[in-house]
Structure formats: C-alpha cells, structure tokens
Design brief:
single chain, about 180 residues, alpha/beta, Rossmann fold, 5 helices
Length: about 180
C-alpha cells in the first residue's frame, strides 16, 4: 500500500481472489471510493463482505463495496461484454490487486481479460502477488512499473502499454487497440 501512496485516494479498486478482503479494506481506509472484490469460496466471500462493510461504515465519506462470489476468470469473461459497453470511466478500475493461490495458472488469463474486457482506466495499475520461487514475467502488452520481493511473497506492478499513450490518434495507440 505504501508503494501506491496517493494513487489510492478516490480510486476504484478491483480485488481479484480477494480472500478475507484485507487489501480492499486497506484500500478503503486509504481513501478508495469503490471496492469490488471477487472471491470464489462462499465462506471466504461472506467474511470478505462483512470486513468490507465494517470498514466502509467507519469511513466519514461515501464508499461503495461489492463482493462477488465467483471464480475470477469466469467472472471477468462473463462480465466482459457488459464492461465493453460501459463508456463511463468512473466504473472502470484505477487499481487491481490480483492474489490467486500461487500455484494457480490464472495470471495470464486474468491479465488478458482485464485488457480485452475494458476493465481498466488510462494509467491504471495491476498489482500481482506471486511466489518468487515460481516467478512471474511481465506479459508483452504490459509495462513493468515495479517489482518487489518480501521473503516468500513478491509483487509485480504493471500497467497496460496503451494506458501510457497520450495521443489517441497515433499509430502506436491504434496498434495498442488491436491488442485488445
């Protein structure tokens, strides 16, 4: 959270494989206005919902929280068409936290769905938590912003290549749109 600093203030936070919701709770405490958490396990999703609601109630500002009990890649695929139709940038996400079980192989499918599903705002960041023993390479459509290792946990912070492009009429921007 300290790495993200003021980027959290007034952000839309997408918490994928949210577990108990601790990262979403901290995002709310640091000023996020919206947290959408996706967690597959029913009991864990219930705990996540309770934790987010509790933190949201303690805020002296309006916040929006939602917990979806669903497998993350299927959720992103199913909502992909709906998200593509949404023109309102305020519904897209500034920050995405992806923390699947380290041995899972969902990093690439999730990152591809985030791009193709129109889930991200310009300048958004995706934080991938992973095991340094497994490693995680930066995909070609993404730019690595930072990488940190903390013992048995590592973070890869990336942004879509297209989100750094200022000139929407440029050939590079058109090429970026083809990736989607």
């Amino acid at each position: 959270m300290n790495i993200l600093g003021e980027k959290i203030e007034d952000s839309n936070w997408l918490d994928l494989c949210s577990g108990s919701g601790i990262m979403g709770c901290e995002a709310l405490q640091r000023g996020a206005k919206r947290v959408l958490a996706v967690e597959q396990g029913q009991r864990t999703a219930k705990t996540c919902r309770s934790n987010l609601q509790s933190v949201a109630e303690d805020q002296d500002r309006t916040t929006y929280t939602e917990v979806i009990c669903h497998e993350v890649t299927n959720f992103l695929k199913e909502r992909c068409q709906q998200a593509k139709k949404i023109k309102d940038q305020s519904i897209r996400f500034d920050l995405v936290y992806l923390d699947p079980p380290y041995e899972s192989e969902i990093y690439w499918p999730v990152l591809n769905q985030l791009l193709s599903g129109n889930w991200l705002k310009k300048g958004s960041l995706v934080i991938c938590e992973y095991s340094p023993s497994i490693g995680l390479e930066t995909p070609i459509q993404w730019i690595e912003k930072d990488r940190r290792i903390y013992g048995s946990t590592a973070l890869l912070i990336i942004t879509p290549q297209w989100s750094l492009l200022a000139d929407t009429g440029s050939k590079l921007q058109q090429k970026a749109q083809e990736w989607l």
